Amino acid sequence: MRTDIQLADVQFAATQGLNHLRLKASYSLDRPLGKPDKVSVIITDACAARCTMCDIWKLQAHNELDVDEWKRVLDDLRAWLGPFFIVISGGEPFQKRGMFDILAHCRDIGIKTKMSTNGMYLTPSACDRIREVGPDFLSISIDTLNREVHDRCRGVPLYDRCVEAVVNLRRDPRIVLGVASIIMEETYADMAATAEWALGLGVDRVLFQPLYPTFATDEGMDPAWFERNPHWPRDPDAVHDALEAVRELKRAGKAVWNPDEHLVAMQHYFREPSSHPRPDECMVRYSTFNIGPRGDVNFCYTVDDLVGNVRTTHPRRIWESAHAQDVRDKMKPCKAPCLLNCYRSRSLRDQVAMFKLFFDRQGF
Questions:
Q1: The three-state (H, E, C) secondary structure of 127-167, written as one string
Q2: Residue 137 pairs with which residues in a beta bridge?
Q3: Angle between the 159-169 and 191-201 helix axes, to the nearest 10 degrees?
């Protein structure tokens, strides 16, 4: 565990703390005063899994940014934002050609990386590379501690590889590990047991995401989508009780990464998916910078208006453009009851806790 405070640690803490206050002011005054604190990248559409609750694997990867293009974009972001976290997902990000070169570049220029993976490519040799170049925070999708159920939902046998990777990577105390699980008919009854099992396996955080309209389809355009989705839980009382058990774990000090208000909102969600309360105010138009595999930028995948493309325009110019503000103005009335974890605001207390976790493990 580190005890020495380096200049980079102080710089990161000061930058993030000041920007947090500016983002609060941006939302109150409705104009951009800060910089995005949620930079998210869909690095590729490619995915070799066959998850039954997701159709992204049916997409074809085409015209995606290559390694050199991503390095240039990352350099631009680092020069503009200073030290920051970037969240990398897909598709399956480890399926991206040159992914470890991109991660190495992030580490070289001082960008902290968080990656989500289904575990398919977490071979022993890949785990060796992760120890060398990152990601600094790896979130592995394991929907339940039940191997048969997990593999059936994922369409291919991934459970054993995920578990082996956790055990392998846990030997390196610098890496922060998480398990992310989708709450659905097949998994909700085991939520608390899955959380305790994953934490016992050695991960640092567990996170739950409610089932949403199938990704890469227009299912969400149907207000009654959940009635026809085979994964939608049919007993809201049982889901409520299962989430209450997770809340109890959190109150007992277990590392459940969902804020309590998020868990409560999910209890409402599984009763009334179209009108549940939001757990917090949506600040994505002033906090979030999403980059797609072909460089397109938006603030939200629900209000999916593009604001620019990093292939042709510097990220800062996109963020500060008149067109970006027009999109923010369009988004302002949105009251969609969103529970996607990637858009959840984090309190300053949570951000300080995250800083301490990474400082103790890695520094900045």
A1: HHHHHHHCCCEEEEECCCCCHHHHHHHHCCCCHHHHHHHHH
A2: 114, 176
A3: 40
Asked whether 239 and 226 are in contact (CB, 8 A), the reply is no
Q: Report the distance separating Cα 132 and Cα 117, nearest Å.
A: 18
Note the pLDDT tens digit of each residue in 137-154.
999 999 999 999 999 999
Nearest CA to 132 among 92, 71, 175?
Answer: 175
- Give me the sheet containing 205-210, strands edge to edge: 205-210, 176-183, 137-141, 111-117, 84-89, 38-42, 288-291, 296-298, 308-309
Beta bridge partners of 313: none
Whole-prediction pTM value? 0.91
- Distance between first and last Cα of the chain: 14
What's the CA gap between 265 and 276, in Å, rounded?
7
3-state helix, strand and coil shares in percent for the chain, rounded to the nearest 5: 45, 15, 40
Q: Examine residue 82 and say whether the peptide bond preceding it is cis (omega within 30 degrees of 0).
A: no
In angstroms, what CA-CA distances link 123 with 9, 117, 120? 32, 12, 8
pLDDT at 345: 64
Q: From CA 162, how far away is CA 128, in angstroms rounded? A: 15
How many other CB atoms sit within 10 Å of the CB of residue 356? 11
DSSP 3-state assignment of 40? Answer: strand
User: Per-residue pLDDT tens for 114-130?
Assistant: 999 999 999 999 999 99
Give the whole-angstrom CA distance, residue 205 versus residue 257.
Answer: 6
Check if the beta carbon of residue 339 is closer than 8 Å to that of residue 279.
yes
Residues in the chain: 364
Using alpha carbons, select from 23, 21, 15 the residue that is nearest to residue 285. 23
